[in-house]
Fold this sequence. Notes:
The protein is elongated and about 95 Å long. The two termini are 56 Å apart. The chain is built from 24 helices and twelve strands. It has three domains: 8-292, 3-Layer(aba) Sandwich (Rossmann fold); 385-440; 448-530, Arc Repressor Mutant, subunit A (Orthogonal Bundle). The chain has helices at 8-13, 17-28, 53-72, 99-103, 123-137, 147-152, 157-165, 167-174, 180-185, 237-248, 260-276, 310-316, 319-327, 341-354, 360-365, 367-371, 385-395, 400-410, 420-437, 448-462, 470-483, 489-501, 509-516, 518-530, and strands at 39-45, 77-83, 143-146, 189-191, 204-208, 213-217, 223-227, 233-235, 252-256, 285-289, 292-293, 334-335. Strand 6 (213-217) and strand 7 form a beta hairpin. The chain is of the alpha/beta class.
Amino acid sequence: MSRMPIDLDAALASNAWPFQEAEKLLKRLNGQRPAKGYVLFETGYGPSGLPHIGTFGEVFRTTMVRQAFERLSDIPTRLIAFSDDMDGLRKVPDNVPNREMVAEHLHKPLTEIPDPFGTAISFGDHMNGRLIEFLREFNFDFEFKSSTKAYCAGEFDKALLAALRGYDEIMAIMLPTLGEERQKTYSPFMPICPESRHVLQVPTLHTDPENGTITYLHPNGQEVETKVTGGACKLQWKPDWGMRWAAFEVDYEMHGKDLTPSAVVSAKIARVISKHMDRKTQPPLNYVYEMFLDEEGGKISKSRGNGLSLEEWLKYGTPESLALFMFNNPRKAKRLHFDVIPKHVDEYLQHLASRDPDEHVKLLKNPVWHIHNGDLPEHSVPLSFSLLLNLAAACNPEDASVLWGFITRYAPDATPEKNKMLNELVRYALAYYEDFIKPNKDYATPDDQARAALAELAESLGGMADDLEADEYQTAVFTVGKNHGYENLREWFQVIYQVLLGQSQGPRMGSFIALYGRKETIALIHARLSSR
């Protein structure tokens, strides 16, 4: 589908957060192209643990702002995905193999530690490859940059020499943020020991900006002089972040709320380094997002692996559902667990169905516009994902053909070939059913009230015709519930779900009966009433 033209006034009136961010950035630039010729967006990645959804989310959200900016301006843009892979590994992550081997290489740069997975030349390269592969699957337009390569190739040399000239100013910024003991040994420069290859956190004894060197106290007690350029040193991460902003002249970067104090410090350092590079560039415009939470409401950690992986989400839900999760409420902390997947699959389908090309403001506010950058796909999905999951719960399918047997009766024109998205949903539903629904089924034993009500529901359905509209079956369900004293019909529906499906939540019953079949529903009721 060709890209739709955009009405700029409608974009701003939509109040969609990517457009709001793009407008802020455009105002910050006074609508002018920067001297470097483009606007630079950056995202950062710490490859000490496996990439997780938070990493993907930062790239995706930044991309949405970039896309919105490109709709409001003709200034060229670039996006850098930067990996801080020259960091020394301080502890072995819990979720990697060959942990004992990795432990032998602690404190070395990630790109100098053997790959515990055995697929790349180093730990850092493996993690970088995992990130790049996934981002390419989503067709992101990005440039990958490795910290190791940037340091060693001299890309940061001018900025590092500027940091050396501004050493005292950087120390004045950093020291008040540190504890008393750390202040005694802190230096923004971390030399790479030529012998051990450890990234050393040691005191700097002397700086020589004219020659571009520092003298530091080696752990063995010797005083050692080293260049700060060419990969002989790297910066501590807060000075490193600020140095990167100054070196690349980054215009926009997101970060999590937990990094807000660090970002403030890094911005001050970026100003110092820019000044000593004889530049007037400012630190980037930042967007602060809330963190994802695990099942227990705790912060997700790459090293603990307590969040969903990228692969796990995509085993049970569509890429579009993941994108929607990232689009919704970035400033609100959200649980990132398996049970959020079906909800977002269905929400995406609802947004897709509700789009109105003639209502520009509403269209540009619709998440699907931002997910697809205006190239809205055409999909016909005659039933929801949650309904598919409940169908699976009722019929216990062994393969997709079982579900398609019910689907084609409900929607005769639907086929796997014609309805590719629906066919994908069937695949996801089977995986989700097998791993989450089937193992957790817990059928309730009906009490006398529930037993009588369900028996009447079976009798009522027995007197109805096949192929009625879902609303007619729904009315019959409502009527039976009222007949048997369920003043709160939510309680009645919960009885149905718990007794018939073995779960506490379920579908709109009229739609379920229409899909599963009137006779099949009657048989299901009788089977559950006869079981003990």
